[in-house]
Amino acid sequence: MAPTSTPQTPFGRVLTAMVTPFTADGALDIDGAQRLATHLVDAGNDGLVVNGTTGESPTTSDAEKEQLVRAVLEAVGDRAFVVAGVGTNDTRHSIHLARQAERAGAHGLLTVTPYYSKPTQEGLLRHFTAIADATGLPVMLYDIPGRSGVPIQTETIVRLAEHPLIVANKDAKGDLGRASWAIARSGLAWYSGDDMLNLPLLSVGAVGFVSVVGHLVAPELRALLEAYLNGDVTKATEIHQHLLPVYTGMFRTQGVITTKAALGLKGLPGGPLRLPLVELSEDETEQLKKDLAAGGVQL
């Protein structure tokens, strides 16, 4: 049975965009994925996103994506929301992945702005609507123009919010002004998709996080969130400032690379990367250790 959602928090509050563990020879590590998912939920996550960019979705097959959803659901699906990333730059393929995720039992879908092809706002509207029409699952949009090349403009977000199954947005736009207007006008549940802006986005109406650093500091993220929700902004700010070295260190280079390195340092499942992603150098690993130590992460 899935966890209980509310209109305000349809996917929980603290979600980690989970890496996809691989074995030493590069195959999907199902056992590792289940152990990692269990660890993350035990640490305070009430949701996990699988098959997102942090899950190396561009280099996993459709069959692997389905296996991963089923495995994570088996491990933690009664304790946490399992949201399947289904976003591609091909609407038909995204619809296929959405239906596959629904059959596998996913609790919701994350769908990123189509990348590289730079569609118009009308194209974005039709793309997201077609995906939302394809299943009965609730949908979280993912707005990350730094990667996709195209922002979801506020007017488009407001129009998409009229769809009964488009219920949330993961915001990695980095624009608090636009976020403020979009939250106020759309009524969507807003999730920070940029760890450095977790606290600032709460202040303009976000309800939670879809985090990368949640692999390492989920208890601190939950403490920050609860302090803010309880009106203790001073404590929330202290936690935010304490985590600044972690936020910075985990994004000195591509986030999957640093996350898998950090998991390896902690003895947690992660494994190798698939090309074109490559492991950290020795110097980069030493810098990551310093950053994490400065943020209180024990390795």
TrEMBL record:
> Which sites bind pyruvate?
54, 210
Catalysis: reaction(s): L-aspartate 4-semialdehyde + pyruvate = (2S,4S)-4-hydroxy-2,3,4,5-tetrahydrodipicolinate + H2O + H(+)
UniProt-listed Pfam families: DHDPS
> Recorded E.C. number(s)?
4.3.3.7
Kindly tell me the pathway this chain contributes to.
Answer: Amino-acid biosynthesis; L-lysine biosynthesis via DAP pathway; (S)-tetrahydrodipicolinate from L-aspartate: step 3/4
The places in or outside the cell where this protein is found are: Cytoplasm
* Cited InterPro entries: Aldolase_TIM, DapA, DapA-like, Schiff_base-form_aldolases_AS, Schiff_base-form_aldolases_CS
Top-level class of the enzyme under EC nomenclature: lyase
Residues the record marks as site: Part of a proton relay during catalysis: 53, 116
* Keyword line: Amino-acid biosynthesis, Cytoplasm, Diaminopimelate biosynthesis, Lyase, Lysine biosynthesis, Schiff base
**Active-site residues per Swiss-Prot or TrEMBL entry:** 142, 170
Q: Which PANTHER family match?
A: 4-HYDROXY-2-OXOGLUTARATE ALDOLASE, MITOCHONDRIAL, DIHYDRODIPICOLINATE SYNTHASE
Q: Subunit structure, per the record?
A: Homotetramer; dimer of dimers.
Name the UniProt record assigns to this protein: 4-hydroxy-tetrahydrodipicolinate synthase
